[in-house]
Amino acid sequence: MTKRRFSLSADAPLIHPEHSRPVSRRDFLGYGMASGLGSVLGGSFLSLFANPRQAHAALANDLEGLKAACPNINLAGAGKIPFICFDLAGGANIVGSNVLGGKSGGQLDFVSTAGYSRQGLPGDMVPSAGDQFINTDLGLAFHSDSGFLRGIQARAGTTTTANVNGALIPARSDNDTGNNPHNPMYAINKAGANGELLTLIGSQATDSGGNSMAPSALINPEVRPTKVSQPSDVSGLIDTGKLVGLLKQEDAVAVMEAVYRLSKNKLDVVTPDATLKELVNCGYLKSADIVDRYGDPIAFDVDDDENIVGPTGIFSDEEWNGPDRREFQKTASVMKLVLQGYAGAGTISMGGFDYHTGTRDVGEIRDFRAGQCMGACLEYAARLNQPLMLYVFSDGSVFSNGNIDDSIEGRGKGVWTGDSSASSAGFFLLYDPDARPESKSADPTTGIQIGYFRQDGSVETNASPAANNVNLLVNTVALNYMALHGEAEFNRFNDEFLNNSLGSLDQQRALAVFEPLNRYRV
Question: What is the pTM of this model?
Answer without folding.
Answer: 0.81
